[in-house]
Amino acid sequence: MRNLVPDFPRAALTAFYWAFLFYLLLPLTLMMALSFKDANFVSFPIGNLTLDWYAKVIQDKQFLEACLYSIGIAAASTLAATIIGTWIAMLIVAEGIRWQVVIFALAVLPAVVPGMISAISLRIFISTIDMPTGTGAIILGHTVHSVPFVVVMALTRLRSMPKNMVDAARDLGADNIVAFLRVTLPYLAPALFGGMMFCVLLSIDDFVRTFFLGGYRATLPMLIFAKVQGGMSPEINAMATLVLVVTTSFGLYAEFITRRARTR
Predict the structure, then answer these.
(1) In a 3-state reduction of DSSP, which class is residue 148?
(2) Alpha carbons 28 and 220: distance in angstroms, whole number
(3) At CB < 8 A and 24+ separation, what contacts does 9-15 make?
(4) Enclosing H/E stretch for 257
(5) What distances in angstroms separate CA 19 from CA 23, 33, 115, 153, one per listed residue?
(6) Are the CB atoms for 37 and 49 separated by under 8 Å?
(7) Distance CA 194, CA 192 (A)
(8) For residue 7, what pLDDT is reported?
(9) Residue 244 has pLDDT above 80, yes or no
(10) What one-character DSSP code corresponds to residue 48?
């Protein structure tokens, strides 16, 4: 009886984990299954299966343009967020800098502010500076939202970095820029790679900020949202399934590369 007591919390946590996993995967499984339905409406039973919806989605010019537009925005916002986030992380760990806790709190603030509030405030900001809605405004919004995640990942890596590495480079004649490029940046590479992949996924998935800051060109979430307004169909499920498979594969590959780089 004594040996069973410690095992009860572990068994309860295991059961809760599998129940939560089932809760997450069941809607996704149903969505993917309905994308193969040989009909123009979503309902059960599925009946005959077909791949025609996937062929239609792949040949849809509007869908392909939205994908390329979302990828371009994700690339630009990820690059900007990585540069800004790395600089903030370096500033926080630098010696002689005061109010480091305040700097960190302000840097991660966009991650804890509700998306609707963040989108409204960004819309007010671009209106104040007379910045038109569209691509530039979307990149600005996605960058602000992505910076905290780069800061956290870069800061975690920097705090595990031996200080004598940079000191050794300076003793050998390297200035601050060379020491950063030859020592600090390679050490940060696994964390920055993981942060960049996460920023890409965040940008592609961001709907609220894109809705408030976007122009006439539709990103991928905006296109799916517009199609949903006309009613659910297996075509929408096929779009969502393709996006889910690609982003999941991208995230798993990024996690694998990051783990391997850290091990090395």
Answers:
(1) helix
(2) 18
(3) none
(4) helix 234-263
(5) 6, 21, 28, 30
(6) yes
(7) 5
(8) 61
(9) yes
(10) S
Least confident of 35-44, 125-134, 182-191, 212-221: 35-44
What single DSSP character describes residue 131? P
- The pLDDT, as a whole number, for residue 264 is 61
- Is residue 127 classed as helix, strand or coil in its secondary structure? helix
Q: Hey, which residues does 37 pair with through a beta bridge?
A: 49
The amino acid sitting at 35 is S
Examine the pLDDT at 6 and tell me if it is beyond 60.
Answer: no
Tell me which residue of 254, 256, 238, 264 sits closest to 37, measured CA to CA: 238
pLDDT at 23: 85
Most confident region among 71-75, 104-108, 219-223 by mean pLDDT = 71-75
Q: Name the H helices within 130-233.
A: 135-159, 163-171, 176-179, 185-205, 208-213, 220-228
pTM of the model: 0.82
75 vs 1 pLDDT, higher one: 75
- Give strand pairing partners of 49: 37
Mean pLDDT of 134-154: 92
Query: Reduced to 3 DSSP states, what percent helix, strand and coil does the chain have, rounded to the nearest 5?
Result: 80, 0, 20
Is CATH 1.10.3720.10 the right assignment for the domain spanning 53-263? Answer: yes
Q: How many angstroms separate the CA atoms of 209 and 73, rounded?
A: 12
Backbone phi and psi for residue 2, each to the nearest 5 degrees, phi listed first: -65, -35
CB 100 within 8 A of CB 218: no
d(CA 9, CA 12): 5
What are the helix and strand counts (H, E) for the chain? 12, 0
Predicted local distance difference test score (pLDDT) of residue 262: 61
Domain residue limits, the chain: 53-263
